[in-house]
């Protein structure tokens, strides 16, 4: 545990990572105990989970192939297979491409701060962490409720159904419906006795695990994007004060030390670092930002006037160490934006193919659900099942799209912030760096599905429009 927490942001995500490990994801890193015996146990647990997950999916697929009697039954079975195929593919995708996820986690942890902007960075990191935990809680509760609803609804259905008589095509026979969550073929009789109880427990476990696999990987994607968005907000917030600081580098102003004095006394934020850390440094860096985006100064140990360092003050009112600190802050701003760009690129590498597969499966599933919706005549178990499938499938797409759209908006607004930050008053070095970032911002940061589509609210609107179109066409044909 202590080793994991030393990873910084990975330590902040410890509950989320721990849940992925507990559900059998092939996330073999970030453990507090890496002894060979524990590593072997974890691999065996992941292997067992993989076997049980794939075995039950094969049973469902076999039932679809050999136990469907008409178009409606075939459509219902296909929807079930496609619905869980989404979870299976994500689980296997993570197992085979885990190195890309580790690379993204590594890029996440390399988000170092700068002394002048440590408070702003910590604040947006805390905001991101809060949003991540809320999202994990919401989706976790949604997963549990989905499993509960899926289990309860089977006991509200009819215990028997009519099926075609294999001996007489003009008549039907009654068949007992097993009270299981999914229609599935088993090499044993799963309708009565202890074998029914074991089959029921197996399906309950499988349902919870498969939904958890997909949802936890979705949450991981959202956490990645949320952190990128909050870092872009941090970059935008520090830009205007940074230009004011940099203006002193090229200006010989006798009293330019006032630039570093606090412009607001309303901030009650704590000082950066401990007193012992301050005593050991050549200068004292205070909390540069308040919630009103004001900044304070480099002060001496007594908090009096402008810091005085051996070597004297230059014509611009800054000491050499202050000048170096300001110049490093300008470079930090550019490097931080560059790092966010690389970080988003690593998210695309990790999730691009999975998003493409997700959308392909979702398109076919929604088409079949539109067909099933045309069969709804009453408010019954069948209607609730179809609506449940439809809502859950659309919710999965929406979670991706809302966060992908936020990334586009935040990355686009960086250029607007650069134009409105009085960059023309900054130093020549700052002007050059602002131009570099503006060139990078001409194209918004996006998450794509293997470059076939962009994840945004426009994509969700297209999916929703397609569902309505399919439904209306099928109603007309009916």
From TrEMBL:
Residue intervals passing through the bilayer: 44-69, 75-96, 135-156, 204-229, 350-369, 381-402, 452-473
Membrane topology (UniProt): Multi-pass membrane protein
Coiled-coil ranges from the UniProt annotation: none
Subcellular location(s) per record: Cell membrane
Keyword terms: Behavior, Cell membrane, Glycoprotein, Membrane, Olfaction, Receptor, Sensory transduction, Transducer, Transmembrane, Transmembrane helix
GO MF term list: odorant binding; olfactory receptor activity
One Pfam family hit: 7tm_6
Gene Ontology BP term (one): signal transduction
PANTHER family given in the database record: ODORANT RECEPTOR, ODORANT RECEPTOR CORECEPTOR
Family: Belongs to the insect chemoreceptor superfamily. Heteromeric odorant receptor channel (TC 1.A.69) family. Orco subfamily.
Protein name: Odorant receptor
